Amino acid sequence: MPDSHIHHLQCVLCGTSYDPAKVAYTCPACGPLGVLEVHYDYEQVERHISRAQLKEERDPTIWRYRVLLPISYSHENRPPLADGGTPLYAVERLRKYLGMSDLWLKDDTRNPSASLKDRASIIAVVRAEGKTVACASTGNAASSLAVQAAAVGLPCYIFVPHNAPRAKIVQLLMCGATVFAVDGSYDDAFDLCIEACNTFGWYNRNTGYNPYLVEGKKTVGLEIAEQLGWHVPESVLVPTGDGCIISGVYRGFEDLYLLGMIEHIPRMIAVQAEGSPAIVRALKGDGIVRPCEAHTIADGISVGLPRNGAMAVRHIGASRGFGITVSDAEILAAEKELAMRTGVFAEPSGAACYAGLLRLLDNGTIARNERVVLLVTGSGLKSIDAVVEAAGSVVPIAKGAEGMAIVEKVVQSAVSSSEEVREPKTSLRGGGLRRWLRGVFKSRR
Ligand SMILES: [Zn+2]
User: Please, which pLDDT band fits residue 443 given cuts at 50, 70 and 90?
Assistant: First the structure.
């Protein structure tokens, strides 16, 4: 398959350049952590893309940017599912609550498998050219690959850690994937998957290993820029585990900047869980990503050894960005508050960026008039086990008149808890819903 617009692949560790026709995955000299970055021939690309051309383009999916994707020009078969083209919401209620004037929420739960990972899986499925596909994943990448493989009819093998969330495993079984639940961590599943791909000649969709996946994920950055009329935000907050998504977002803006289509590249802010902080540690230290223990309820960003760490650190630095960590308690509270004030039910890792925003507003790092985008990467419906307790409780009532009496009481006490404004540095736990629920239970006694 001639990738005529890809100029070369370059190792993030040693800087060696490779011909894409000769190297499929990572740098032969550096091994699995020598992730390769795709470089395009921008002189060739710029003949095929412009603001004016995109204005005329009717396809809302990622294929509107196909000239910037690692897919050959001659590839005609467009996969059947609609990936990308997800909404960028102005979140008016949340703006009012936070006192922010230019906050946006990119809702990537609206992809076919309900996560941003579809943007990468679709590239893998196209590039597999009929081969069996495989990946190791904590959940979303796997379910996304299973969904995309089912749509085009490719056999699919998945390696998950045995504790991956139930809903995500069910989704990939339903799509007909063969699932190996590895009695070990994500990293163990990753190693096994690479070995199986080498043994059986499968196409490997592992994040932070296959260089073309970041290129699919970058479409989220391309969309944000276009949806904001090319006036890109000052900051984008990105939930960060292995570092692939944040590199993808950066790459999207970088492409547009190199093509002269935007004025600057936004500041990339990596939000990690306190229990899985490898990239933040590297950013605050010497820039080298080292493995650490990973324990967090946010399974999508629970990564001991970020496979794309070196590239992510470089991209975050190039954007003048930084990283912060948030606790599991903050993530859970953020998930609920985000859902209550926007209607977008994020999974814990997706909500982490909102928890990060609250911290950065409180310490003054983000100004309330800044143009800021929160990237919600996956749906909360896939990780309900993690949030069952934080969700709150139902109000049990009897049937008939006795039940109706309680309904009336609840409705009366709800009237007082309408719109409110968040005071800086207050705990999320003091939120209106909690007060309201307390009122409900008091009135029932
Ligand atoms: Zn290398």
Answer: very low
